[in-house]
Amino acid sequence: MKKLIQYGIILGIGGVFLFFVFRDTNWNALFEKMAAANFSWLLLGVVISILSHWIRAYRATQLYEAMHFKVSTTHSFYAVLVGYMMNYIIPRAGEISRCAALSKTDDLPLEKSLGSVVTERIVDMVLLMIILGIIFLMQFDLISDFITKTLSNSNVENGKDVTNWKLIALGILAGFGALVFIFRRKLVQTKLFIRIFGLIQGFGDGLLSIRHVRNPLQFILLSIAIWVGYILMMYFCLFAMEPTSHLSFADCLIVFAIGTIGIVLPAPGAGAGTYHFFVMQSLLLFGVAKEDGIAYATMVHGIQMIVLLILGAIASVLVVAQQKKKINEQA
């Protein structure tokens, strides 16, 4: 019952965003915009994203090796593709599916591979926060404009903000900090604090586990390369459409930062609806019309979904074939 409620909430979030994005869409015009796109740039973006997935698979083998399990990059890549495919079919099912695939091909215990996935997620989250923090500092004014226009009811009249939300935010943070300091002794005894502290400690343990891999520096560099690949994929896809082709790499960083919100939010189809909304909103900052922003987001999300569903299906077949081969060899 709990799972059904969770899936219902996830479907509801995605449905609301999809409705908001596509409610006034002229579908014929949308398909015409996508049909006129230069698919060579989209193909280049897909190739870069697949390379990033392969790097993710190779990075994972270092964690498996640290647990004394020898897993080939090929099998790890199969598992990554299966995981991505399942994320499009069942929300948040990718991690379990990925680990299940490795248990079939390499007899890697489910609980051990799940532990490695947690470590990967922690490293990715820390790096993502660092990347987003750098982008935020570099492009503070643009992102603050996005927040003002999208997440607040204040308007800009005659070039002046009706409400200076920055000062309000600082005031709220200062007040919150003062309350935490005053009631700190009582807060540390609450279940919520204990749980948050446990999560923070888990993050620390996950990061420290990198020490057990054979080459920690290489592991970190591979992690950075994964995110660089994701950014480059989005950047090259911008050239596929005339209305977005003028954006610079710095502009792409803003689109990536805001679009990442749509991926992080729980939604079916790996960000269906939420990704479209935030990418479309971010492109508005650079003068890209809403319809063109929707077309771009739909193409990038759609082609990724199609490719990963196909590759994931092929990888699933190969996983089963490898399992049968292993059973026959042991017989």
What attributes does this structure have?
mainly alpha; 331 residues; two-stranded antiparallel ribbon; single chain; 80% helix
Give the topology, please.
Elements: H1 2-22, H2 27-35, H3 39-66, H4 73-89, H5 94-106, H6 110-138, H7 140-151, E1 156-157, E2 160-161, H8 165-182, H9 184-187, H10 191-208, H11 216-238, H12 249-264, H13 268-271, H14 274-284, H15 290-330
Helix pairs in contact: 1-14, 2-15, 3-4, 3-11, 4-5, 4-15, 5-6, 5-15, 6-11, 11-12, 12-14, 14-15
**Average of pLDDT:** 79
Number of helices: 15
The radius of gyration computed from the alpha-carbon positions, rounded to a whole number of angstroms, is 22 Å
| Proportion of helical residues | over 70%
Characterize the largest beta sheet: strand count, sense, and whether it forms a barrel: 2 strands, antiparallel
Relative strand content: under 5%
CA(first)-CA(last) distance: 42 Å
Q: What class do helices, strands and sheet pairing give?
A: mainly alpha
Compressed to H and E, one letter per element, the order equals HHHHHHHEEHHHHHHHH
Order of adjacent strands in the largest pleated sheet: 1-2
Quantity of strands, as a count? 2
Q: Per the principal axes of the C-alpha atoms, what is the gross shape?
A: globular
Residue runs with pLDDT of under 50 for 5 or more positions? 153-163
Number of domains: 1
